[in-house]
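Reopening this one. Same input as before:
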Amino acid sequence: METTREVIRRFITTNFYVADPAQLGDDDSLLDSGVVDSTGVLELLVFLEQEFGIHVEDRDILPQNLDSIARLEAFIARARRSAA
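Same output, byte for byte:
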């Protein structure tokens, strides 16, 4: 069974251009590296809501929640805890 981090990584490397997926670190900025742009953020939000069953509030659409694989994983964990 895939971990949350693995599911996020697979989505990003499959749906966005990542020249060398092995070189994409868990803490690398997805925005600064150009992997995800403003349209990509919208795709990412839909993915999070569908894949993990969470609702992303407008106030949560911030780089500290969405800008890296590690930050996405932490955000999902927090969203799941607050929903429980």
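So the earlier flakiness isn't reproducible anymore. For the record, The helical segments are 4-15, 38-52, 63-66, 69-83.
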